[in-house]
Amino acid sequence: MNATTEFGLFVKLALAVIKGDDAEARAIKIQKKAIACLTAQIAAKEFHQLSLEEAIENAEISLDEARVNFGDLITDNESFIRTLLVRRQERDVAELALKEHKEEIVFLKEELERAKK
Fold this sequence. Notes:
mainly alpha, 117 residues, rod-shaped, 0% strand
């Protein structure tokens, strides 16, 4: 039995400690952390998506209320129009936020699949 075979595992362990992980071990660690990180972030974003959807619903309700001047007679035309425009802008911003958020989730899911390969 030669010394390299007899001490092969010990030598490999010692080299790993001295030099650090070999490329394959590092790659596996990177992959595991990437998968865990992406999985956690996707779950968090999917949960947050509920809040963004609710924000759109609230913005729609607010716009509907503004359309009827909150049940009051319209006595100030400029204020009525300004309120309508503001409420529409709020709804549009909420919709855009949700759209971008969904695109991020799709991207992260694609990256997760890539990391698993």
